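Private note to self, pasted from the team thread so I don't lose it. Backbone tokens:
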């Protein structure tokens, strides 16, 4: 499992005091506010202190203590911010997308393997697993009627497939 997870991408500056506009890749602003430190690299070597964060439409306006003005903020455009997974509390029954990618998807009744998760999508109603097997992609909704168990430690997601999900006809 990755220790440092992508939290979002800096897409622009905001104002003259060094704030940046962040495209959130995490659940919401409240999740982001759990972190006191964010990082500019996936190894946690370049630390930045999160001074404040507030919502703006589907983004966040973030102030990083080390960024004093617009010139410093300008240099951050396009950069990905990372967070240490140990610095946040994840609600019971929730998983990081990074932990789901690579998991095998298996039938709860027959133990048939359907493939591996190559992506997790969301179009509003629920997360959707993109499961790839031999070049074929199947989209599986992450709803209670389908997902039986998620075991990220052993990289297995057990499902009860909906009728027609894997039918070839």
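Design output:
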């Amino acid at each position: 499992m990755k220790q440092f997870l992508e939290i979002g991408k800096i897409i622009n500056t905001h104002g003259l005091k060094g704030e940046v506009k962040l495209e959130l890749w995490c659940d919401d602003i409240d999740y982001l506010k759990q972190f006191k430190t964010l990082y500019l690299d996936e190894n946690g070597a370049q630390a930045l202190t999160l001074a404040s964060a507030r919502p703006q439409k589907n983004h966040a306006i973030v102030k990083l203590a080390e960024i004093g003005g617009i010139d410093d903020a300008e240099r951050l455009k396009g950069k990905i911010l990372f967070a240490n997974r140990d610095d946040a509390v994840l609600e019971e029954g929730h998983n990081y997308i990074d932990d789901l990618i690579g998991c095998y998807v298996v039938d709860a009744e027959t133990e048939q393997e359907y493939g591996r998760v190559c992506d997790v999508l969301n179009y509003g109603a629920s997360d959707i697993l993109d499961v790839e097997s031999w070049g074929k992609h199947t989209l599986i909704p992450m709803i209670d009627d389908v997902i039986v168990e998620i075991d990220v430690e052993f990289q297995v997601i057990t499902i009860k497939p909906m009728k027609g999900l894997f039918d070839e006809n």
